[in-house]
Amino acid sequence: MALFRKLKSNLGVEEEEEKKKKVVDEDKEEIEEDEKEAEEKETKKESKKDKKEKHLADWPQSKGQLAADIYETDDEFFVLAPVAGVSQDEIEIFVENEMLIIKSERKEPDAEKEKKYFFKECYFGPFSRQVILPEDVNSQKIKASFKKGVLLVSMPKKKIEKKKIEIEIE
Q1: Residue 104 in contact with residue 167, Cβ under 8 Å?
Q2: Residue 91 pLDDT > 80
Q3: Measured between alpha carbons, how far is 80 from 153 in angstroms, rounded to an integer?
């Protein structure tokens, strides 16, 4: 056997066979890499498909935020918020740590019926809004009114008295 190897190496046959083996091995590696990439792409497609098929009810519900307009006049600050689907009794308004907090929950009508949505834009569930109170709000005199589904919170400003300071002559 050693004689044949020596003979092959002298004739250059062994080098050609090794080159062919190298090419074949490289081709095998490329094919394996392509197969792995195809499998990864297929896995990604399946996971995207699974996500799309997941029903909305399976997702955890987050707490919604109440849309509001906040503005001021010369004498008061106001928070104006449309609150559809909630009665006056279901709304909580309170002041805590110099912050006005409005909380409630919209209950979904016909929640027990199974539905297949085309669009789901209406939010049902708990919602809230927190507003940091300015320093000049009189938090003891905050009032709220609820008319035709619109909540209006009025917060009177504290009357700041100007004090004249006299300069002493030394």
Answers
A1: no
A2: yes
A3: 7
Contact 87, 135 (CB under 8 A): no
pLDDT of 32 above 90: no
DSSP the chain: -HHHHHHHHHHTHHHHHHHHHHHHHHHHHHHHHHHHHHHHHHHHHHHHHHHHHS-GGGSPPPPEE---EEEE-SSEEEEEEE-TT--GGG-EEEE-SSEEEEEEEEPPTTTTS----S------EEEEEEEEPPTTB-GGG-EEEEETTEEEEEEEBPPPPP---PPPP-
Tokens of 34: 């392509």
Q: Which residues partner with 77 through β-bridges?
A: 72, 155
Q: Residue 58: is its pLDDT beyond 80?
A: no
**In the predicted model, is pLDDT for residue 168 greater than 60?**
yes
Question: Is pLDDT of 38 > 70?
Answer: yes
Amino acid letter for position 150:
V
